[in-house]
Specification:
Blueprint lengths: L1 E8 L4 H17 L3 E9 L6 E9 L3 H10 L1 H4 L3 E8 L8
Antiparallel strand pairs: 1-3, 1-4, 2-3
Amino acid sequence: MLVAIICYDKPNQLDLRMKTRPTHLTYIENCKVQFTYAGPILTDDGESPKGSLFVGEFDSLDAARAFNAGDPYSLAGMFEKVTIHPTRKVFPAA
């Protein structure tokens, strides 16, 4: 199941994000999820991170929720809002 996980940081979380980033990246590299996309959501100037976006193949929505719950960013309490939704790739056609 293709799932999108959209995470928005609480205000003023850049220091926590940078401190937690190495363990966050290790977590992503070692998980068994096949990601179509994973990366930061940036401010309008394209410079500063203000959240995270993941699109990947999960066994279920519960598996996507568990992935998010175990993310070091989530464990650090960095996110203000997280939404998790099934999605479907339409373009470019597979």
